[in-house]
């Protein structure tokens, strides 16, 4: 069934990547950045175990990104 937000647009499904709700899906307005506050969780709270796993994965990705940045700056420094 179609779901519409306050400005009568079809809502879009997204995934939250915050510490508290990592991986939890929600729907919101396409124009949420323009001020439409429509918001609804699609699923219940993530279980503690799942949250831990996702948090660990996120941290791993962050570390990778940092490593990449370091390698990049080191490369750029070489003549
Ligand atoms: Zn809207």
Automatic annotation (TrEMBL):
Entry superkingdom: Eukaryota
Q: What is this protein called?
A: Zinc finger GRF-type domain-containing protein
Q: Which organism is it from?
A: Daucus carota subsp. sativus
Q: What is the lineage of its organism?
A: Eukaryota, Viridiplantae, Streptophyta, Embryophyta, Tracheophyta
């Amino acid at each position: 069934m179609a779901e519409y937000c306050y400005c009568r647009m079809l809502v879009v499904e997204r995934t939250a990547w915050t510490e508290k709700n990592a991986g939890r899906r929600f729907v919101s307005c396409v124009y949420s950045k323009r001020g439409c506050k429509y918001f609804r969780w699609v699923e219940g709270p993530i279980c503690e175990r799942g949250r831990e796993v996702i948090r660990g994965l996120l941290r791993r990705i962050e570390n990778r990104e940092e490593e990449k940045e370091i390698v990049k700056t080191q490369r750029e420094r070489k003549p």
